[in-house]
Design a protein that fits this description.
The chain is α+β, with helices and mostly antiparallel strands. About 30% of the residues lie in helices and about 15% in strands. It has helices at about 1-30, 35-45, 140-145, 175-190; strands spanning about 125, 150-160, 165-170, 195, 195, 205, 205-215.
């Protein structure tokens, strides 16, 4: 600061000296007959001395604030692990366990052997005589005749090795039980067959299927 004040005082003294010289020059000019206006302009220009104060030195910027260091993250204490594991208890068995069950070995089934083909072709039972004469209109049940009931009875006969009927089965009823019953009764009495034969040509049990139609005779 003392140096700056000293420099300002020196500048002022220099300015005063210059102003005095200017006054001398102006007086001389007036004496020599210079125009008054010229002297006035010079005096005005010279007397207005712009004295600039020296610029103050810029203060250095303040240092940046110190950043506080972030606190360290919390560290959890290590978990204590008990590695001492108790050994498993050993149980002593006095009785020995039963033996494992024996799995039976299943033998594969024996191959099926087809029977040998018959030496003689089997034959079915063959009716003797005329089957249409086994049941006739003369066998019509009286009640069904009075009520004028008609129908067709389907049947299956079982024929024994002697050619006689051993069983009669109704396969298709006529709608009138008395007509169906009359059918089987007459077939058992009258039907005769040549018995069926097997592959050896021997008589065997066979069957016969047919139908009987019951129609009221016209006079």
């Amino acid at each position: 600061m003392a140096y700056a004040d000293q420099q300002m005082s020196g500048n002022k003294i220099t300015a005063l000296i210059i102003v005095a010289l200017i006054h001398v020059v102006v007086g001389y000019a007036l004496v020599t007959g210079l125009a008054y206006s010229a002297a006035k302009q010079i005096l005005k220009k010279v007397t207005t001395v712009d004295i600039k104060e020296p610029e103050k030195p810029k203060e250095p910027p303040p240092p940046p604030p110190k950043q506080e260091a972030a606190p360290p993250p919390p560290v959890a204490p290590p978990v204590r692990i008990d590695v001492a594991v108790a050994p498993p208890a050993i149980e002593t068995v006095q009785v020995a366990p039963p033996p494992a069950p024996v799995v039976p070995v299943i033998a594969p089934p024996a191959p099926v052997i087809a029977p040998p083909p018959p030496r003689i072709p089997p034959k079915a039972a063959v009716p003797k005589g005329r089957p249409a004469e086994w049941v006739t209109t003369n066998d019509y049940p009286s009640r069904a005749l009075r009520e004028e009931r008609e129908g067709t009875t389907g049947f299956r006969l079982t024929v024994g090795p002697d050619g006689k009927v051993t069983n009669c089965e109704i396969t298709s009823p006529s709608g009138s039980p008395d007509l169906d019953q009359a059918t089987c009764d007459n077939l058992r009495r009258r039907a005769r067959f040549t018995p069926a034969t097997d592959g050896e040509g021997q008589p065997t049990t066979g069957s016969y299927v047919n139908r009987t139609r019951w129609v009221i005779p016209k006079d």
